[in-house]
Amino acid sequence: MSPTEHEEVPWRIQAGVYGVGLFSTSIFYIGSVIIPLYVYTMNPSPLLFGLMFSLPHVLPLVLSIHGGAMMDRLGARQVMLAITTLGAVVPLLYPVAPSIWALMVLQMLLGLSESLGWLGAQTMIGQYMQGRTVYAGRLSAVIRISQLVASPLAGIAWDLAGPWGAFTLMSVWASCAIVCALWLPALPLGKGEHDATAPRVQIRMRDLMPRLADYITAFQLLRSPAVVLIVLLGAMMHVGNAMQGSFYVAWLTEMRITGTSIGLLSAAGAIGAALFSLLTTHLMRYMGGLWIALLSIWAGLLLICITPLLGSYFLLQVAMFLRSGANGLAQPLIISLVLRGAGRANQGKAVGLRGTANRIASIIAPLGMGVIAEIAGLEASFYIVGVAISVILAAVAMYLWRRPELGQAGED
Q1: What's the pLDDT score for residue 312?
Q2: For residue 204, with 0-12 CB atoms within 10 Å meaning exposed, 13-18 middle and 19 or more buried, which class applies?
Q3: Which 8-state DSSP code applies to residue 146?
Q4: Is the distance from CB of 125 to CB of 335 less than 8 angstroms?
Q5: What is the pLDDT of residue 365?
Q6: Cα separation of 27 and 89, whole Å?
């Protein structure tokens, strides 16, 4: 039977879930080093450069809720087996892409794999672990291994072996998610049992097709002000992530920083995120969950928006450590609060809804920043984005101040 609310989930199950999250998110962390470097060699305009990093979020924007609904119906493990296979194959096609337009198609497919892989790991926290913050915190800490290890290796592979070496590394690393998904026990539809002998869920063609009812159910979750705030704050976090995976690397390239050094910056961020994510449940003894999420996400965004002011590699490392640490502090709360607010039957849809909002932010951020950079220059675009997001988050803070019961949302 499934563990009770306060019973420890077996480590075999925990390892499988954390592994799916780790190797799925590695697509983003490795890609944030080598894909901007690869695209930069084609000398695109700032607008086209920004468009390239908006495209990975197009398919997840349309399919996140549908993917979450399939996880509710079929179990996240079944969906992950297909998605992780896609993530292992697509990187090998980048070095043979004949043009930047072909790269755009690959960016969309890779983005779908990374996004649904991460959404699947979050859904598994609900399906296997009751959506508890302590497990979300561990997941948030474990996924930083790819940032700590794989990102520097990607930079080294780029410097030593070029695109083929770097993208092969991405493929091998991402393929480990398939093994982790196979390692997990079956989760029967509508039950809480972790039983490897349970009958397989029959997958029919209509189960793979989007359903309007699933989208309606997902958007009905927005009737709760707490869910709206959680979704909004998660989207704001992805604004910073989108900047880090696009124009941030472009700025570092203009500073003559090598691929290896860019990867080591990512490693500093991984250490910060892992350490801070394990502190979330302890900090909640003194401050409400939504306040922690708001303030830490705000700090993380400001730390990337001041990048042009950081004139030394050491300061860039410190800023990345603190920025990722701030995100690591907020991430477990964003995961657990949205899962608990949705109820067991709609956890996949709730995660998909959050993923949809994240993709909107991830599309708008690099594309909008590209437009600003065309008009005002790359350096000014960092500052303008920083001011804009500060206005939005200040409004959220005022709303929470007037609704103290919402600011205290959180548990463990």
Answers
A1: 87
A2: exposed
A3: I
A4: yes
A5: 82
A6: 12
Contact 122, 72 (CB under 8 A): no
8 A C-beta contact, residue 135 and residue 14: yes
Q: In the structure encoding, which two tokens stand for residue 84, read together? A: 């992780």
Helix axis angle for 11-40 and 76-89, nearest 10°, is 30
Confidence of residue 127 (pLDDT cuts 50, 70, 90): confident
Chain centroid to CA 345: 23
HEC profile for 219-253? HHHHHCHHHHHHHHHHHHHHHHHHHHCCHHHHHHH
**Distance (Å, whole) CA 152 – CA 149:** 6
More confident residue, 305 or 269: 305
Most confident range (mean pLDDT) of 187-191, 283-287, 327-331, 389-393 is 389-393
- What percent of the chain has a predicted confidence (pLDDT) above 90? 16
Q: Which two tokens stand for residue 234?
A: 């998660």
CB 153 within 8 A of CB 169: yes
Q: Which amino acid is at 203?
A: I
The CATH class that applies to domain 11-407 reads: mainly alpha
Distance CA(9)–CA(263), nearest Å, equals: 34
Residues belonging to the chain = 412
pLDDT value of residue 323 = 92
pLDDT value at residue 316: 92
Tokens of 76: 């996240």
Burial class of residue 339 in the structure, from the number of CB atoms within 10 Å of its CB (0-12 exposed, 13-18 middle, 19+ buried):
buried
Q: How far apart are CA 297 and CA 307, in angstroms?
A: 16
How do residues 282-334 score in pLDDT, each as one tens digit?
787 777 778 888 999 999 999 999 999 998 899 999 999 999 889 888 877 77
For the cut 80, the answer to whether the pLDDT of residue 409 exceeds it is no
Is residue 184 a contact partner of residue 16, using CB atoms and an 8 Å limit? yes
The encoded tokens of residue 253 equal: 């390239």
Unique residue bearing structure tokens 């959050």: 354
Q: Say if CB 177 and CB 19 are below 8 A apart.
A: yes
Does residue 120 contact residue 80 with C-beta atoms inside 8 Å?
A: yes
Instruction: Average the pLDDT over each of 145-149, 297-301, 319-323, 407-411 and give the range with the smallest value.
Output: 407-411
Q: Kind and range of the H or E element at 68?
A: helix 58-74
The whole-angstrom separation of Cα 68 and Cα 349 is 5
